[in-house]
Amino acid sequence: xxxxxxxxxxxxxxxxxxxxxxxxxxxxxxxxxxxxxxxxxxxxxxxxxxxxxxxxxxxxxxxxxxxxxxxxxxxxxxxxxxxxxxxxxxxxxxxxxxxxxxxxxxxxxxxxxxxxxxxxxxxxxxxxxxx
Length: 131
Description:
This protein is α+β, with helices and mostly antiparallel strands. The chain has 5 helices and 5 strands.
């Protein structure tokens, strides 16, 4: 990325544009824009105020605290549900179902044993193999 592109990204971000719009205007990939903005602490602002990344409402930033990205929990949830590709999932576990033998993955539960409820019932109460 050139110095000219960096300056252009800084100006566009300070004007309130998102990563996607900046990437379209500069021809730099969105991930590169995002990385540069985060490394440079370029938060979206309008008139010197931070704005919500979801709805664009102004956010009051408390001095000495972490920068807020969203105005509310509902905006935060809506934004993250729309950007699932950006979620860094670290607690993904792989298991083999003792009932049907199927290999499956579960997020956030290291104690899971069965791929589905029907396999649990079949295994526990002797209804045969499922799945």
